[in-house]
Amino acid sequence: LSPAAEERFAAAVEAEASGQWAQAAAHYGVLVALDGSHEAAILGLGRALEAQGDTATALRTYERLGSNPKGVEARAFLLESSDPLRSAELYRLQQSLQLGDAWPYLGEARALKRVDPAGAAAAIDGYLDLVQGAPKGSVILDVIGELRAANEALEKVRKGLRKKLTSNQRRTLKGDRKILLKRAHDVSDRERLIMETWTGAFPQLLAAYEHKERFFHIWDATTRRDAEKALTAWIDDIPQGQKEVWKDLVSAISGWHEEMLTYFETDIPITNAFTESINRLAKDKNRDGRGYSFEVMRARMLYTTKHKKKVPQTKESPFLGKATMTYSMGLPEPEKNYGVDLSTFWKS
Predict the structure, then answer these.
(1) At what angle do helices 273-288 and 294-303 cross, to 10 degrees?
(2) Maximum CA pair distance of the chain?
(3) 47 pLDDT above the threshold of 60
(4) Neighbours of 299 (CB within 10 A)
(5) Fewest beta carbons less than 10 Å away: which of 26, 166, 174, 184?
């Protein structure tokens, strides 16, 4: 780069770091106009456009990099929510461009998690096959996500009733949705009367609510065998006319069957929810500065991510009939710092 271009690039990086996205886009845009193959400027322009909500132009910007692995990754990441199948296709292209790199398999799994659970499971298998020293233990699914999916199915039934209601009834039912999403043992006497009014008037809503509750009760099982029997019975007993409503959850169960049931093989109920949270932090950091090398990303995760955690306490789970480790929401507890030991800085 010429001295003037280097100065402009520094200004673009500074504007991006301070969140001045329009200014950053202007600087990066000039650099791209001067040199259409300037990888860092193209990636920076795409990030700035994304931050301003112009995803269509950001996508076209990333396409300027062609089959460059970083450009492919940027496009795949951008399309994860809006076009997951195309995103997965781009992650598979990245896998072929970066043979031996396991991370594109995780991206494919993220993209396919909702639309193709079986494909997502296959991508996870590919990741585990490639990672050196793959985990010797079992993979346990974040069951909270599946419980949330049961509530989403109930919501579909509730929304499907709106055509039969007056405007006032629709507004009332919308306001009462939180009651329907509660567990049966958490519903107050007043809320139970309201709920019984709706479920009495609409048998299909009652059937969906009871089916949702039966799904939650599966996680009260104390052994994998009991859970597997309950899960099979739950799938067989889907209310008449509601198979389409529960289709996504049943599909997820089929694709992640082993990972879900492994939950019942541990002494203390655990899931991969914490791992999902850390993965999201890494994803956000990568979004802040796409184009980071692995070494830079590793350093940012180790040295800039907050590692302080509240001391976990044991309390009753809202969906489980046994104790589970969770974080207290009461008075502040002493903190333990699980960050990187300072000696890491001077180890060779």
Answers:
(1) 120
(2) 76
(3) yes
(4) 13
(5) 166
